[in-house]
Amino acid sequence: MVNTVKTATVIGLNAYEVFVETDVVNSLPSISIVGLPDASVNEARDRVKSAIKNSGYTFPSKKVVINLAPADLKKVGTSFDLPIAIGILTEEEVLDSEKLKDYAFIGELSLDGTIRAVNGVLPLVLGLKDAGVKNVIVPKANAKEAALNGEVIVYGAEHLTQVVNHFTDCKIEKTYIDVNKYLSEKVEVNYAYDFKDVKGQHKAKKALEIAAAGGHNLLMSGSPGSGKTLMAKCFPSILPPLELSEALELTKIYSICGLLSSEEPLVVKRPFRAVHHTASANGIIGGGSTPKPGEITLADRGVLFLDEMVEFPRQVLEVLRQPLEDGEIVISRAKHSIKYPAKFMLLGAMNPCPCGFLGDREKPCTCSDFQISRYRAKLSGPLLDRIDLQINVPRLTPEELLLSNDEEESSAKIRERVVKARNIQVERYKSESILTNSELTSDLVKKYCKLDEKSKTIMKAAIVKYQLSGRRYDRVLKIARTIADLDGSKDISAIHLTQALQYRMDENFGIV
Fold first, then answer.
1. pTM as predicted
2. Which sign does the torsion angle of CA 44, 49, 53, 56 carry?
C-alpha cells in the first residue's frame, strides 16, 4: 500500500506543496528516491535509515521506493528527511496514515534521530498554508519562525521519537507567537553611529532625511574625509521601523539564506548592506545554478550602500538599473524564471575625481580633464537618472570642525520626523499596495503629486532649462511630495518643489 506524507519545497521565495509517496516492494533491500531530487535529497537515504534504526524502530528489509510529487519540480535541501522517515514508519505501521492527513512535516535528521534546523521554514509553511494544511511539525529551532504564519498550527520537535509519540500518546506542545507584539518590542535598537556625531553638513543631513522619509536613492560626492562614509553609517539610525508586511517579506528572504536566528526569528531592523567594490554582478543581483538572493534582495526594504561607487566595474553598476526602476529582479534560467523583491534604497558615495579634490576649498585638483571625464563615465546617464538625490559633501571649515557635537541634532529627533512622514504615506497609499513615495508609478504621480499654478510655472521653467526627462520629472515630483510630507503639508507648494529641484541640479554630476 502506498502512503502519502505532505511537505513543501521552495523555488525562489515561493513554496509549493510536495507529496512524499512511499511504497515497500518485494525486492533486495534498498532505498530509491525519484521525483527530481538533488544530491542533498538523495543523501537522505542514509540519514533516514540510520535515524530510524537508532531511534529504536525497524527499517524495512525490502526495497523502499520514495516518490516526490509533482515530479517536475526540482527538490532541493535536507528538509525532506523527516517526511521521508514518517512515510517509511507509516509503511511499517508504526504510525496510522489517517492521523497524518492534516499534517505536513519539515526537518533534517541526524543519524541518531535528532531533528535539525533547516533554511526557508517560513516560506515553506506559508506555501503549505495556501495548500490548506492545518498542522505542521518542524524542527524545534525553527518553531518560532514557522509560527509567524499566523494560521497553521506549529509543533516544534527535537527528535524523531517525539514526532512518533505525538500521534500515539504524548502530544508536542504547540508554538505560538504574537507577531505584532514581537515587532513592537524589538524596534528600539541601539545604533553605533548617530548624526549628533556628524559636525556640519546640514544640506547632506537634510538630503538623507528626505531619502529615509520617502525611500529615495541618494548619491554623495565629496573630498576624502568630508564625512560621506560616516553619514552613511548613521543613516540606519533614522530609518523608520518596519511595517509588519515588510518584516515578514524580509524574514522569508533571510530564512531562505539561512541568516535568521532561532531566538529572533522575525527580522525587525531594516537591513543595511555595505558591499565592497570587488563584488561580482551575480553577488549583487543573485543567481547560481540553484538561484539564491543577491545583495539587492538582502537589502530589500532597507539600504544598499556602495562606498567608492565609481570603483565598481561599470557592468556591475549597470545591473542595478532594472531593479532600481522595477523594485524586483528576475533571474532567468533554461527551465524557469525566479523573481526576487528588490525595493531597496541605493546609497552611494564617491570622490568627484581620481585625486578626490575637484572643487575642494583647500586643496587643488591635480587631475586632467580627460582623467575626470573617464572617471565619471563609469556612472552612466541612465543610472544617474534613477538616483533621486545627488549632492556635494564639501570639506568642513575649521570653524565647523571646532564646533561642539552638542549643537548637532541627534538621530532620534530626525527619526521622529521621518516616522511621521512615513506614517502619512502608509495611510495615503493604503489602497494602492505601496508604502512610500518612491514607489509611485506615473499614474499615481499624477494622482498624488498635483501642482498648483505657481508650481507649474516653476516646473515648466526647470524642464526647459535643465532638459528634464520624463523619468526625472516624475522623480522630482516624488521628492517634492516627500518634502511636503516632512513639512506636514497636504499639498505640494512652490517651496517644496524648489527644494526638490535643487537636489537634481548639482553640476558635479553633469545635470546642468
1. 0.89
2. positive
Minimum mean pLDDT range among 94-103, 116-125, 139-148, 180-189? 180-189
> How far apart, in whole angstroms, are the C-alpha atoms of residue 30 and residue 22?
13
pLDDT in tens, 161-184: 999 999 988 899 999 988 777 666
Cβ atoms < 10 Å from Cβ of 282: 15
Length, in residues, of the chain: 512
- Orientation of helix 411-428 relative to helix 470-486, angle to 10°: 110
How buried is residue 489: exposed, middle or buried, by Cβ count under 10 Å (0-12/13-18/19+)? middle
Quick one: which of 479, 457, 440 has its CA closest to 212? Answer: 479
Element (H, E) at 348: strand 345-350
Compute the distance between CA of residue 375 and CA of residue 354 in angstroms, rounded to an integer. 7
Q: Kind and range of the H or E element at 459?
A: helix 453-466
Written as nine digits, the cell of 100 is 497524518
Quick check: helix, strand or coil at residue 389? strand
Q: Three-state DSSP class for 431?
A: coil
**Scanning the structure block, which residue is given the C-alpha cell 519540480?**
73
DSSP 147: G
Specify the residue for cell string 541526524.
Answer: 110
Asked whether the beta carbons of 113 and 144 are under 8 A apart, the reply is: no
Q: Dihedral of CA 235/241/245/250: which sign? A: positive
Q: What is the C-alpha separation between 397 and 391, in angstroms, rounded?
A: 18
In the block, which residue shows the cell 555595505? 274
Question: Which tens digit of pLDDT belongs to each residue from 432-463?
Answer: 989 999 999 999 999 999 999 999 999 999 99
Contacts of 502 (CB under 8 A, 6+ apart): none
